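Why do we bother with holo predictions? Because pocket geometry can differ from the apo form. Keep that in mind while you read this record for oxa(dethia)-CoA.
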Amino acid sequence: MIRSVVRGFGSALPQRVVTNKEMESLVETSDDWIVQRTGIRQRYIAGEGETTASLGEAAARDALQRAGLTPDDIDLVIVATSTPDNTFPATAVNIQNRLGMTKGYAFDVQAVCTGFVYAMATADAHLRAGMAKRALVIGAETFSRILDWTDRTTCVLFGDGAGALVLEAQQQEGKVSDRGVLTSHLRSDGSHKEKLYVDGGPSTTGTVGHLRMEGREVFKHAVGMITDVIVAAFEATGTTAEDLNWLVPHQANRRIIDGSAKKLGIPLEKVVVTVDLHGNTSAASIPLALSVAASDGRIKQGDLVMLEAMGGGFTWGALLVRW
Ligand code: UT7
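The structure, written out:
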């Protein structure tokens, strides 16, 4: 059977790092509070000329270089983002053009913090259906541009950045030992809208709006939703927590990450954590974490890697891939 195999990974971050100390000068907060409640120590904030598309393009070029491929080898670009450069055209089409691609197709996926899991599952479906041969799957965000910088309950949490994977359709044996995406499980429930949303949009206010979150309410649902989809991925493949080499979670809050791993019996040494470095970069957080752990040699070819996320909507999902 055809599987979507990871050929390359890449990432890009804005130039400017903003530490928790610096946040203390903007809002009534403290390094202690932020570290204890979230695990975040710093985040990257986009400056002039840095946009979701420019960061996404840089991450894509990095991933292509690692894969030993050129933009001409790609026929599908999917960008997971909630902070597009423009309402339309899609950021994916913008990046396709920036890469100089003249063939294939490109579109955005919008599932907020679960966006990268949705984008990977979508790319996998297209590759397995034979619609494309190689896909760039990009998570790119500039959440700093939709934050209310006077609201300490949200502005300290988020950051900007982008990460990308190159997926390639390859013939595999149809076994759990295959390389590539083995299973994906996507969920959503729109009844939770008011707990995490942006209070503007083209069709309502005609403005971009600002992020609003009832953090405690999101927190209450997070661990249960995350562990449910991970269990679904284990059941679908006949694997267990012991078979897993790495859990690469969405990086929103260290306490949510630790709580989910503990509930599933996954030792913390097998969990990739980058929330301290990047803050919550929404759809970019998983590919950024993958890039860190794959470039420092932790994630190696043949490793079984679980991706999971939960966020606005609510949306949540898990995807199991053999690297
Ligand atoms: O990626 C999408 C999914 N999003 C998430 O997963 C976020 C989920 N939620 C969370 O991560 C946590 O709920 C937060 C980190 C947002 C907040 O942590 P918490 O332990 O739930 O704190 P809390 O909201 O219950 O607030 C505790 C206290 C409050 O003061 P009082 O009412 O107890 O006096 C807040 O006003 O902390 C106060 N507070 C702050 N203090 C210093 C809230 N924000 C800050 C701040 N600095 N930045």
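The pocket of oxa(dethia)-CoA is lined by residues 29, 33, 37-38, 113, 152-153, 156, 215-216, 218-219, 222, 252-253, 256, 280, 311 (CB under 6 Å).
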